[in-house]
Amino acid sequence: MRGRSSVTEPRPATPDHQDLIMACARGEKSALQALYALEAGRMIAVAQRILQRRDWAEDAVHDTFVQIWRKAAQFQPGLGSARGWVYTILRHLSLNMRRDRAQEEAVDPDHLAALAVPALDPAAVFADLAETSALKRCLQALEAPRRDSIILAYAGGFSHGEIAGRLGVPLGTVKAWIRRGLLALRACLA
């Protein structure tokens, strides 16, 4: 039986992070590849802790290496370690990505349908007004598009742009219909 020797075999020397970043600054692609081989696994783990999603973490690591390549010449060894610089870039990109992508998250279609504003039929709202109402009498004197625009705006709470989209007319037309319709209603009700 062979015994183990007390002498350990020397490990192959790994390049220093600072040397690799300086080589990236000189345009040596092999340095970026070496840095990737050295740190990518840990970087994905760090990014995944921040982002809570593996696919986003992979994107963050990719973007970090792009930034390292582009900004390697800006690294200043006197301000901190090269490894710290790499992880600072990763952290900032991950936090920005979490903030930006959280706003883009897709909503479940059922949840979106529950949030949708029910369709408002201006004719039905007009019909529901009391027959003896002065408002109904004055609204009846308006042309249908003006009346519908006013009902959509005040009973439905729609913006001028939303009304224009629903009625398929230009925004300026809707604004004019509402303005002129309200003037006519004010005169009629006075």
UniProtKB/TrEMBL annotation:
Q: Which domain of life is it from?
A: Bacteria
**Keyword annotations for this protein?**
Sigma factor, Transcription, Transcription regulation
The residue ranges of the RNA polymerase sigma factor 70 region 4 type domain are 134-185
| Domain RNA polymerase sigma-70 region: residue ranges | 36-102
**MF-aspect GO terms:** DNA binding; sigma factor activity
List the Pfam families hit by this protein, alphabetically. Sigma70_r2, Sigma70_r4_2
Gene Ontology BP annotations: DNA-templated transcription initiation
Against PANTHER family, the record matches this protein to:
RNA POLYMERASE ECF-TYPE SIGMA FACTO, RNA POLYMERASE SIGMA FACTOR SIGZ
Q: Which NCBIfam families match?
A: sigma70-ECF
Family indicated by similarity: Belongs to the sigma-70 factor family. ECF subfamily.
The protein's name in its UniProt record:
RNA polymerase subunit sigma
Species this protein is from: Zavarzinia compransoris
